Amino acid sequence: MIRLFVGLALPEEVRRRLSLLTGGVPGARWDPPENYHITLRFIGEVEMGLAEDIDAELQRIQAPAFALTLATVDHFGPGDKARVLFAGVERSEMLLRLHGKVENAVQRVGLPAEQRKFTPHVTLARLKDTPPQRIRAFREAHNLFRAGPFAIGAFTLYSSHQGKGHAVYREEATYPLEG
What we know:
4-stranded antiparallel β-sheet
């Protein structure tokens, strides 16, 4: 079994800028900069044969390269039960199209459709028992954050392995976009 997801890697400069946002939030477990990415589709645990089928379907995707911009910070979950701090992604029609093609590819190999609404973001930290006023202060301090536009020239199939304190992601395959 292998735990997989499809995502977009971020340029080093964008990861560096995101890493400057970390700190000052009690109960936050900050992701390391090497883990910053935009998830297109979480797949989960699959057998190696199915992983190969997923890879074959992803190789068939044809889509143009495009640019993205990160803007503002926010959280998932209500203020008193927030569970994730993230940097948001500005709306991009090209990103939505690529997401749709990845979703269709994963469904063609027999996996069920994703039930959650696609909310492109970069996870900065996971939260536990964080006071809502500290989350609010973090959001207010960084609500003007912007990074980009930056080029997206490929998407990646990643595997996820449990490491010390955080997951370790490994690139299994990279699929270039056109142009």
